[in-house]
Every structure is written in C-alpha cells, then in structure tokens.
Amino acid sequence: MTARVPDPHLGAWRAVLSAHSALVAAVETELAEASLPPLAWYDVLWAVRRSPGKRIRMADLAAEVTISRGGLTKLADRLEKAGVLLREAVEEDGRGFYVVLTPAGEAMLRRMWPVYARVLRSSFVSAVSAEEAEAIDAGLTRAASVAQQRPARRKASRSVGGSPR
Amino acid sequence: MTARVPDPHLGAWRAVLSAHSALVAAVETELAEASLPPLAWYDVLWAVRRSPGKRIRMADLAAEVTISRGGLTKLADRLEKAGVLLREAVEEDGRGFYVVLTPAGEAMLRRMWPVYARVLRSSFVSAVSAEEAEAIDAGLTRAASVAQQRPARRKASRSVGGSPR
DNA sequence: CTCATGTAGTTTCCGTGACAACTACAAGAG
DNA sequence: CTCTTGTAGTTGTCACGGAAACTACATGAG
Question: Within 13 Å and on the Cβ side, how many CA atoms surround A44?
C-alpha cells in the first residue's frame, strides 16, 4: 500500500497543501475584517488589470482565474453589479465581450492589495528565505506546468495574485 | 501604501497557487476517471486511519481536514451512507462520537492512494528535485504554521501593553 | 442538587461553482 | 447564399461547504 512517492516529495506536497489552505484562509479573513470582497474578486480584477489593453475576453478570463465559464458569468455579474467592472461588446465578434475595470474597480484593487500583501509579508515572506523562495518558485512552477499538460478533463481551484500598479 | 512583497517570494506564492490548483485538478480528474470518490473523501479516510487507535472525534477530524464542523457532519453522512465509515458513541462523553473506518473504508483508501500517488509521481516528483522538495517542505511548513496563528479571529490578543498572565 | 455556562455535533439557510443544455453569432464548404 | 459545424457567453440545475441557530450533554459554582 506504500505506493512509492519519495519522502521528501511527500512532505513537500503536504506542505503545499497546508500552506495553501492556511494562507488563503488568512487572506480571506483579513479581507473580510477590512470589509473588502473575497479573494476571488481580487483574482478577477487583477487578471483584467494586467491584461494587454487592460481588457480581456470572458473565456480567457475564466482560464486566467481557473474557473468554469458558467461560474465566471455569475461572478462577473456580481462584480458588474458592484460597479467594479463592465462588459463591452466586441466590434469584430458579435458574440463576445471585453471585460474592463471601472475606476471603482481600479480603486478596489488598490485597496485590496495592501491587505493581501500584509498577509503575505507576515506569514510567507517572514517564514521563507530567499533561497527557499527560489526553489519553491522553480520547482512548483515546473510541477504546475507538467500537471496542466495532462488535464484529461478539467476542474479547478484558485489562481494567482500579484501587485497592482 | 505600495505594500511591497519581494519578487522571489511573490513568484513563489504564485507558484504555490498554480501548482496547488493544477495538481488538485489532476488528482480529481484521475480519481473520477477511475470511478473513485473525490479527494475530500481520501482526506477524511486517511485522517481517520492515521489517528491514534484509528479513530477520531468529529471536531478533531474537522480540524484535520480543514473543514467546518457543519460541513464535516454532512460529509461524514455521505461517507457513512457509502459504508466506508462509522460513528461510534463515546462512552465517557454522551455528546461525542468516534469516527472509525469500516473494512470497506480501508479498502477504499487502498484503492485511492495508488491513483493519488501516480499523479504525484508523474507531475510532482518528476518535476521537483530532492533539494527543491526539502526547501519546499521547510519553507512552506513554516509559512503554514505562522499563518495558522492568525486566521483565528481576534481573540483576547493581549499582545500589547499588559503583562501576560 | 440546581443553575449557568461551555462544548459536541447537527440542522437550516444561503452563496458559490461545476456541468450541461441552450442561444446567438462566426466561419468554412459546397 | 445556405448549411453545417464550431465558439462565446448565459442559464438552469445540482452538490457542496460556511455560518449561525439549535439540541443534547458536561462541568463547575454555589
């Protein structure tokens, strides 16, 4: 029953799981305490903000934030209702929309990032050395890309964070 | 208020997020293809199995698998209905239950692990060097433990001013 | 013993996301 | 053109999990 996964790797994988859940939970908690929206909103806003032209098609956005297209439609509905983004019809393609941020959306991003960053600094930066960070980045980026090759079928979870600017 | 997070750490955090989502998705896919239950079931079964005496209280189990108590009640209901676990009343405490595995539960675990392990080997072990694995384990385990200190709501955190106890 | 308070687990209600069916438009073949 | 097939996005349905109210039992003060 001990299917061979080397101990160091098994330990590393467990660490990934617990760091992920602990940090995401911490970020969500801090955002909620600051009366800010959940991390999912940040992911979407940030994905739009960093896209070329600061606009992005729904399907591409869904891929960016690793959510289903149907799920994104509803998430975007909420964001639009909150006034932080807009859907603009695409001239050349009558089926599609560009998602763009409103000024309120940009502002929201600027309010969320410091909270996110504070958690990262206090829990992640403080606990991980620069060398470890390099190793984590290198190893896990490779693993993620290998794992993504083989999405026999899909499913998803959360995505990336970064600094707005 | 440009909350700065060092680049290596930011990159590492992004890598954690994408590796987590890609690998979890891959495992879920493979489990589904093998007509096996989702990862959440594995987590529960495995947590029970590795507990001292191979039994564990509901609340402790909830903490182990990072799920709310209410959520665990329902998950355990499904598992129990599937015949893979049982709730045994605790003699000394009329409120509580021990969760224990049935033989079918042990068998389920033995069928699930090879699938899980296969994905880990093909996506994680193959992409991550032993040294990187060590660094990932060390760094992320530390980060997780630091992060876990804080997601709990502001309790009597008398960190300031007064003398402790 | 009795009462107040705390704890274990369950239940109710609600928000969210996956999946598949569906609508509208696009694009290439003939 | 027109037909077929493919793609973008939305909608309906469903399963799952969180939060808080709730029940039953435990425990310590008096």
Answer: 31
- pTM score, two decimals? 0.88
> In chain B, which residues have their Cβ closer than 8 Å to the Cβ of A139?
15, 127-129, 132-133, 135-136
Low-confidence ranges of chain B (pLDDT < 50): 152-165
Q: Tens digit of pLDDT for each residue in B72-82?
A: 999 999 999 99
Tokens of A111: 């309010």
Q: For the packed helices B7-33 and B103-119, what is the interaxial angle rounded to 10 degrees?
A: 130
Instruction: Select the residue of A12, A23, A162 nearest B147 (Cβ to Cβ).
Output: A23
**pLDDT tens digits for B148-163?**
876 544 333 333 333 3
Asked whether residue A59's C-beta has any atom of DNA/RNA strand D within 7 A, the reply is: yes
Q: What is the pLDDT of residue A148?
A: 86
| Amino acid A151: pLDDT | 58
Phi, psi torsion values for B87, nearest 5 degrees: -105, 120
Q: Is B3 left (phi over 0), alpha (psi -120 to 50) or beta?
A: beta
**Which A positions 62-91 lie with beta carbon below 8 A of chain B?**
66
Distances (CA, A) of B119 to A121, B3, B39: 32, 37, 12
